[in-house]
Amino acid sequence: MAKKSKSLAIENEDNNKKLIGYRGRWYDVSNFTDYHPGGNVIEKFVGHDATCVIDSMHKHNVLEKRTPVGCYSLSLGNFDRCMNDLEHKFRTEGYYDNSFRWYVRKSITTLLIIVLVFCLVVSGAADENIFCVILTGVFLALFWQQSGMLMHDFMHTQFFQHRLWDEKVGVFFGTVCFGISARWWKDEHIIHHAFTNTVEPEENFVDPQAMEALWAQNVLLFPFHTAPWQAFFVKIQHWIFVPITVGLGRIGIIVDSFREEKRLDVWAALLAHWIWVVLLLSYFTSWQKIVFVYWCGCIGEGILHVQLLLNHYSKRFYTMSEKRNEEYYRSMFDCNLNITCPWWMDWLHGGLNFHHEHHSFPRLPRDRLREASVHIKQICSKNNVHYDECCFTVAFCRTIYNLSIVSDKFRKMLKND
Questions:
Q1: 139, 411, 412 from 416: Cα distances, Å
Q2: What is the C-alpha separation between 213 and 215, in angstroms, rounded?
Q3: Which residues pair with 212 in a beta bridge?
Q4: Are strands 318-319 and 70-71 parallel, antiparallel or unpaired?
Q5: What are the DSSP calls for 328-340, one per residue?
Q6: Strands 19-22 and 318-319
Q7: Which of 20, 43, 100, 185 has a CA-to-CA distance to 281 between 20 and 30 Å?
Q8: How far is Cα 219 from Cα 203, in angstroms, rounded to an integer?
């Protein structure tokens, strides 16, 4: 693991400086933290080594315009060193650079889905029989699901590899097409990557994409579920997980994403989203069909939420101190689970069936993840790191079982209190 500094007060004359460690050198980011594109998560690394997280989530030259203000002793663990070397290999061999055409084809294919939906509706075929009505809802769900996956890719700058341009396209697919605040999602997702399954109740900090008000998948989350109504739901969380995630997941994430959203471009994109949705639904001749198609789309797209939660919900949680004292990449493998499937099913999972690979190297394009997994498995084997993977069914059962076990622990805690 990386050795932390003895004390910034000893190593630096100005204790008010906000210093972040990278490859044995301290960098002063005091005048940058408020402007960090990734948000205030950077504050969590002040006074600590951030070599691995910077290498995995940023371009290698991200600090080239900054002058180091001090040095410290850096000693990476074997696993972190091997993963850093692999990241360098991917970078020098062009793994990050050759996916432009793939994403163009993927984007066009996704947009053709909604074109097909409009063709069904405008032609009147979708309004004539129940089969076409159901088919419209299914294709609508598929469009939302694939748009959400593309939003994820663009917000990780996997397309243009230019933050501003990728974010603009990410807002298009995430807000105009998918219907949520793509920028809100990115703000939370960056914290999720930096501190996956990490909790610190004393600081009121929790991985935002590991926290839901209705259930607690780990005992470390109990302090965040103190309201009587929350206690009621945690007791039955293994029963309500699927119905709520699938049936209400889309509505919930839309509401959450816009609750405090103030950025005008996102609200404009949301307006565009509802214009095409209302236009699409206006072609149906009855309210029953309108509600059915939209809700069918919501339920179908709700499977996406289950997909994403299975990657983390049965895995280890860390406190902040535990996280900082563990190797960065080793902690990532402790907190993630891969879903095994044939190569031709990668499109349905949006590449996130390779969660170990994605969390290790978030900027790595989706079409290179399966190839990258071969190298990562070799490194895990050499370093005695468990590469956890299983099929969707087993992952689902593990998640439900974990929710049940944690629910029992919650009951016992309340009983003892």
A1: 50, 9, 6
A2: 6
A3: 215
A4: unpaired
A5: HHHHHHHH--EEE
A6: unpaired
A7: 185
A8: 17
pLDDT of residue 65: 82
> Which positions ≥6 away from 133 have C-beta within 8 Å?
126, 127, 289, 292, 293
Q: How crowded is residue 194: how many other Cβ atoms within 10 Å of its Cβ?
A: 22
DSSP E strands: which ranges in 62-115?
Answer: 70-71
Domains in the chain, CATH or no CATH each = 8-75 (3.10.120.10), 100-202+240-305 (no CATH)
Element spanning 318, H or E? strand 318-319
Residue 268 structure tokens = 């404009």
Residue 40: half-sphere exposure toward Cβ, Cα within 13 Å = 2
Compute the distance between CA of residue 98 and CA of residue 107 in angstroms, rounded to an integer.
16
The answer to whether the beta carbons of residues 136 and 293 sit under 8 Å apart is: yes
Nearest to 56 by CA among 178, 190, 186, 204: 190
Which is nearest to 85 in space by CA: 117, 108, 51, 113? 51
Asked if residue 4 lies in contact with residue 48, where contact means CB atoms within 8 angstroms, the answer is: yes
Q: Which two tokens stand for residue 306?
A: 């289950």
Handedness of CA 84, 368, 54, 309 (dihedral sign): negative
pLDDT digits (tens, 9 = 90+) for 114-140: 999 999 999 888 878 888 899 999 999
pLDDT tens for 343-393 read 999 999 999 999 999 999 999 999 999 999 999 999 999 999 999 999 999
Contacts of 278 (CB under 8 A, 6+ apart): none
Contact, 158 vs 166, CB < 8 A?
yes
pLDDT, tens digit (0-9, with 9 covering 90-100), for 58-84: 877 788 888 889 898 888 899 999 999
Amino acid letter at 53? V
Place of tokens 């974990």: 402
Q: What are the structure tokens assigned to 307, written together?
A: 């997909």
Question: In angstroms, what CA-CA distances link 392 with 274, 307, 347, 386?
Answer: 33, 8, 15, 18
Question: pTM for the whole thing?
Answer: 0.91
Query: Would you state the structure tokens that stand for residue 388, as one six-digit string?
Result: 């956890």
Amino acid 30: pLDDT: 86
Residue type, 18: K
